[in-house]
What we know:
Layout: E1 8-13, E2 16-21, E3 29-34, E4 53-58, E5 62-69, H1 71-74, E6 90-93, E7 99-101, H2 118-125, E8 133-138, H3 162-174, E9 178-185, H4 193-213, E10 221-224, H5 233-242, E11 250-253, H6 269-290, E12 293-295, E13 301-307, E14 313-317, E15 323-325, E16 335-339
Helix pairs in contact: 2-6
Amino acid sequence: MKKLLGIISILSFTGCLWAVSYLASCGDKLPVAVQDSTEETDTDSTTDTASDLGQAVAKEKFHLYLLIGQSNMAGRGTVEPQDTVGNPRILKLNRNGEWEIAREPLHFDKPVAGVGPGLAFARDMLPENSEVLIGLIPCAAGGSGITVWKPGAYWEQTNSYPYDDALKRTHRALEDGTLKGILWHQGEADQSPQKTAAYRERLIALVAALRKEFNTSDVPFLAGELPHFRENRDAFNKILHDAKQDIPFYDVVSAEGLTPRADMVHIDAVSQRTFGKRYAQKMKALQKSAEQKMFMKGTGMRLFYRPTGTDVKETMTSCPSISCSLPDIESGSGVTQFIK
């Protein structure tokens, strides 16, 4: 297991202050800087305050989120002081594949990278449980169409291979944490009628490929609407919503009311922070749905479940694999609670 790099913390240990660069492994746990409070602090220097705790964090406590798409995911909003306030529990994978405290701009696809939805999303997703860290994996590529989000596709604007790079960077991150969700915002490059006609199938294929690559069939995937200040956005946004019929553990984040920069293409910083919070709200709902998965060993387990608006029911079920989800019990209609 590779180590988390790039984070320096001052630890209070046996009455002494130790400056520690986290370069040693700790079995199945990861040595990272964890603040003993959920309050965000200004961390302009490379050293955190003495109140920070060096804590070994298990992979399941390091929640990873992949950020992909084009420029409105990468962010073009103007960076303000509030965007440079770091929290040692919110990290980002930098261009060198090393963890560092996340600050805007998260992305580095182009020199104009600015405020996107990612940091506001992470701040809203951060649980009060101080053992959990969030790791952002910024991989969006400005101007990229969905056709370059496939193996081997090169994107000249960013001199990169967006899909291949995202896989490489995510696999690097997975050495340290657990993938909890994928955030996608893309479509400005695909609004022509010819491209729109094929978009739904391409999106379905992209989600399936990513889930197969990372060996997780139910990792939540969120697509953001095109902002409503764009012309002809309704037809495209309808495609995103219609894809709910084909993609499980998928939802669409509303872009209603978001405001543009002067170029009338990119979302401004204020609205990007709002957008990030909307992504977080949807992600929490999808994760809750995914957590309704029931794990069992063997078959023929007795199950009790409560369909919406009814009394508790009992059934016997067989599961062809170790993992069965609640919708498998009875077509998934209105199942809201599993009773052990």
